[in-house]
Amino acid sequence: GGGCRPALALAALAALALLTGAGGLLGQRSPQTSRGRAVLALPRVSLGRRLVDDRELEAAIFDCDGTLVDSMGAWFPSWQVTCARHGLSITEEQFWSFAGVSLPDIITSLHRAQKGEDPTEEFIQAFLKDKREVHAELEAKRGSPPAIAAVVDLVRHYKRLGVPVAVASSGLREVVERHLEHAGILELFDTTVVAAEVPRGKPFPDVFLRAAEALGVDPSKCRAFEDAESGFESAWRAGMQVVDVRRLPGYPLSPGLRKAMASEDMSKWAAGGADDEPRRRLRLRSSSSSSSALFPSS
């Protein structure tokens, strides 16, 4: 409600102060500038060893769900309800570990683990139909998700510095734009690209490459902001610096997400970055990422 806004604003300002202050996550300001912009860096929340100097930074590209809007947890209840209807179950920790994986792949994984066999195509389609309906009902009651202040402050910061900003999402355009508009941040972005508009979804690089193309910038001079493994890999393979927004001060970490993060294997990033080819936890199906993303507006 409206009474929460002052507290959120103060938290956002505190997070930005930590990011931009001396010794903060963004590091100290440099006297050098690029096209009149202050020089900043994001070494402590970046993955791998790829860093884009702010003097050369041409664009900042953001995922949507779990990055710009706090919608990730909102998807979990519909998963619980739909799984129960179809004789399956899912824990919150499992839910977070599946971030960025397509719905058919998740259903297949759960069914295989709990039933000992792959689901039929009919089962998957019936599950997906119920899942969409359940989530629509829940969101109609709950309303659209709020913006994540710690990340949106960075968007506004880049806008003030004249850095182009874009959205690169795995979701459906109408859902992405509705969530961004409800959060009051849709107008901040120079362009939005969604998975339906590219050949392959995350963890392939297509959506980030298309966003860079739409902005007319060099992907290797872009900084990508993500919250899930498939997004990290997608942006890395696009040649961009990758920032894990979950590690920003003020990011809303649920208990389930904390557990999922604690069990992640981040060794490949410490070693320098992702492999050249996407590594998937599941045997991929041929389903389209534009219609089957785990989080339809991610």
UniProtKB/TrEMBL annotation:
InterPro entries: HAD-like_sf, HAD-like_SPP, HAD-SF_hydro_IA, HAD_2, HAD_sf, PGP-like_dom2. Keywords: Signal. GO terms for molecular function: sugar-phosphatase activity. Residues 265-298 are annotated as: Disordered. Residues 1-24 form the signal peptide. PANTHER family: FRUCTOSE-1-PHOSPHATE PHOSPHATASE (PTHR43481), GLYCEROL-1-PHOSPHATE PHOSPHOHYDROLASE 1-RELATED (PTHR43481:SF4). This is Uncharacterized protein. It comes from Rhizochromulina marina. The lineage of its organism: Eukaryota, Sar, Stramenopiles, Ochrophyta, Dictyochophyceae.
